[in-house]
């Protein structure tokens, strides 16, 4: 049985719009095991980044409820000071944009040493430098001594992302949260960075939460996948089940709309309607129902919950049993 | 309708010294030639900094051409100002970022009216009629006319950008990463739509992109760029099923596979190609790290390899 490192229970993150709070993350429960990549997938606005930021206490003004248990303590209840002892040490964060995540006025070496110094006052200057060079080498930078004395603007996007990863893993974290780590990068660099993260997972026995909208990245990296829609998890299962027998209509629609799955020159699948904005999110019933209007209202649960339909495979709302794409095409034909 | 680019070069000067003299040049596009036939979709692919966007912008006149020729229907339009006016009506551009390519202070009505005001003298009534036709074409409601760009989602904005591009019934559209900023389902929507209007209006596209999955789906012919030059050019089938240059092979192998079963295999293939890339680097690139001129490999397929010495 794998060991849990992080346990999220009923997490709810709400933002204030015109004096009212709207939940962007709405009752999410998840757990992360050691040596595991848990991917969280969804379109922009589904709350996946809001979830990641909540875990690290990075929201400035949001109402966060629920529990996040790490090392026998609820990290949502910690003060900023206590949290600072965890952040950068046992919990690392890889940001989406490596240019804005680095300080443009500091040399790369100094930025890495900063995190080491913050959490380990016993190390002397020489050891810190050695450790920084070792980290740069570990993330696959060819000439660590040169990069150590460079500034962020002198590095390419892929190199910068490697530096951000080096900073995140500097203190051997047990939990690594990566928010779209390869979105800003080219395909060949992306595959290198993903490889690197895989190696690190094995070496450090860490649990990685990978936030992404790219299903290709999920297929290549993840062990388990949580699909989010409108602030909720709609499907949670291991990666093979997700790609071979997806259940929830949203998961199936997403997979259907990837170009490489379709025949060239054939039409891609389009999900009807748009992701509703935070204020207008339907809070009752199946939140995906209005995107699949050809499915009868009676097929949806009144209060959909995540149900375990097979061991380890959770799906929200029983509408998946009645869902197919064929009916939509029929409806379209009648209309036209 | 056909467009031919001959040995196109776009160099940007690097200024230096106290007098700001030109010290050197950045060779963003360094000798690119290709031909786009009517009704096809031509893909320009490459990593960031390879010069694919610069090529697109040079064709439409947003970048100054240093050397080379651009022929439109056999007519040289590289420098001639007069010839360009007609050309500009027929050639339009779709930009990458639907957030920064629409003026936030203009209503959709004014954004879409601008091409008409520039090229056609229309009465108010006619103008409005044409705009509502455009909105209908891109699937937006008539009321959107009086809204501002921030009131739309990313996909809707991209469609406003497309509406503006097709306003003057162009023959030719240069799409610079039109779906890179969009989610998969919205991406599907925009790609479908672009294919629909291609059939409807008989458009020819140059599709600039870095996502090979998308490129494979929409393009008939592809040119792969590296450091301002073509590495390989061929029909979609040639590039994806029979890549010859090591750079193309590496690029194709880096496409994420959607089936997690093949994960181990893919990693092995990639590692093999990466070692091959390092080993055979000298065979495919000259001393300065540039690629060689293109040589014909088959009737549709060209590869940048050194000339075979006798």
Characterization of this structure:
- The complex is a heterodimer of chains A (336) and B (310).
- In chain A, a hairpin with a 2-residue loop joins strand 11 (306-310) and strand 12.
- Chain A has 12 helices and 12 strands.
- The longest helix of chain A has 18 residues, at 187-204.
- Helices cover 33% and strands 24% of the residues of chain A.
- In chain A, the strands form 2 sheets. In chain A, strands 6-7-8-3-9-10-12-11 form an 8-stranded mixed sheet, with helices on both faces.
- Chain A has 336 residues and is α/β, with parallel strands linked by helices.
- The model of chain A has no long low-confidence stretch (mean pLDDT 88).
- By secondary structure, chain B is an alpha/beta fold.
- Chain B contains 11 helices and 12 strands.
- Chain B has helices spanning 52-60, 81-90, 108-119, 124-137, 154-166, 184-201, 212-218, 236-241, 246-253, 263-279, 281-284, and strands at 2-16, 21-37, 41-45, 67-72, 75-76, 91-94, 172-176, 204-209, 221-226, 229-235, 294-296, 302-304.
- In chain B, the strands form 2 sheets. In chain B, strands 6-7-8-3-9-10-12-11 form an 8-stranded mixed sheet, with helices on both faces. In chain B, strands 2-1-4-5 form a 4-stranded antiparallel sheet.
- In chain B, helix 3 (108-119) packs across helix 4.
- Chain B is globular, with a radius of gyration of 21 Å.
């Amino acid at each position: 049985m794998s060991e849990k490192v992080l346990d999220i229970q009923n997490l709810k993150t709400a933002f204030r719009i015109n004096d009212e709070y709207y939940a962007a993350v709405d009752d999410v429960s998840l757990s992360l095991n050691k040596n595991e990549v848990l991917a969280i997938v969804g379109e922009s606005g589904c709350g996946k980044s809001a979830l990641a930021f909540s875990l690290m206490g990075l929201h400035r003004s949001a109402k966060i409820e629920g529990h996040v248990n790490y090392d026998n303590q609820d990290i949502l209840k910690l003060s900023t000071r206590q949290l600072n002892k965890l952040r950068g040490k046992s919990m690392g964060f890889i940001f989406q944009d490596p240019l804005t995540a680095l300080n443009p006025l500091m040399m790369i070496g100094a930025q890495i040493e900063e995190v080491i110094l913050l959490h380990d006052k016993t190390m002397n200057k020489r050891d810190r430098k050695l450790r920084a060079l070792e980290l740069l080498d570990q993330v696959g930078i060819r000439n660590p001594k040169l990069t150590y004395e460079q500034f962020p603007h002198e590095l390419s996007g892929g190199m910068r992302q490697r530096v951000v990863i080096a900073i995140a893993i500097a203190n051997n974290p047990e939990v690594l949260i990566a928010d779209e780590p390869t979105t800003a990068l080219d395909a060949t660099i992306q595959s290198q960075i993903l490889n690197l993260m895989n190696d690190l997972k094995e070496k450090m026995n860490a649990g990685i939460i990978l936030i992404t909208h790219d299903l290709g990245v999920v297929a290549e990296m993840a062990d388990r996948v949580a699909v989010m829609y409108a602030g909720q998890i709609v499907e949670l299962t291991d990666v093979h089940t997700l790609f071979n027998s997806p259940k929830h209509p949203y998961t199936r629609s997403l997979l259907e709309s990837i170009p490489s799955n379709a025949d060239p020159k054939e039409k891609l699948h389009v999900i009807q309607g748009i992701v509703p904005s935070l204020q207008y999110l339907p809070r009752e019933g199946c939140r995906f129902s209005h995107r699949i209007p050809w499915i009868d209202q009676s097929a949806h649960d009144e209060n959909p919950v995540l149900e375990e339909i097979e061991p380890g495979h959770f799906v929200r709302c029983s509408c998946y049993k009645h869902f197919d794409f064929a009916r939509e095409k029929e409806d379209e034909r009648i209309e036209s | 309708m056909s467009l031919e680019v001959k040995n196109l070069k776009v160099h940007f000067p690097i200024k230096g010294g106290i007098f700001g003299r030109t010290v050197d040049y950045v060779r963003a596009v360094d000798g690119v030639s290709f031909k786009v036939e009517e009704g096809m979709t031509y893909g320009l692919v490459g990593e960031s900094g390879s010069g694919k966007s610069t090529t697109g912008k040079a064709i439409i006149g947003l970048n100054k051409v240093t050397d080379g020729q651009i022929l439109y229907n056999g007519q040289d339009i590289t420098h001639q100002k007069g010839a360009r006016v007609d050309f500009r009506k027929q050639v339009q551009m779709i930009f990458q970022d639907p957030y920064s390519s629409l003026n936030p202070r203009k209503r959709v009505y004014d954004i879409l009216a601008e091409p008409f005001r520039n090229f056609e003298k229309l009465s108010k009534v006619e103008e409005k009629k044409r705009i509502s036709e455009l909105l209908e074409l891109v699937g937006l409601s008539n009321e959107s006319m009086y809204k501002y760009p921030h009131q739309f989602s990313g996909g809707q904005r991209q469609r406003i950008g497309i509406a503006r591009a097709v306003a003057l019934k162009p023959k030719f559209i240069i799409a610079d990463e039109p779906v890179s900023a969009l989610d998969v389902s919205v991406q599907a929507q925009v790609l479908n739509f672009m294919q629909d209007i291609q059939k409807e209006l008989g458009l020819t596209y140059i599709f600039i992109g870095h996502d090979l999955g998308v490129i494979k789906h929409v393009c008939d012919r592809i040119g792969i760029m590296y450091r301002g030059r073509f590495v390989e050019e061929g029909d979609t089938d040639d590039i994806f099923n029979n890549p010859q240059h090591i750079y193309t092979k590496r690029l194709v192998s880096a496409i994420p596979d959607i089936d997690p079963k093949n994960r181990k295999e893919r990693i092995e293939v990639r590692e093999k190609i990466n070692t091959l890339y390092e080993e055979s680097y000298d065979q495919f690139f000259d001393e300065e790290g540039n690629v060689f001129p293109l040589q014909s490999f088959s009737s549709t397929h060209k590869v940048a390899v050194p000339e075979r010495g006798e």
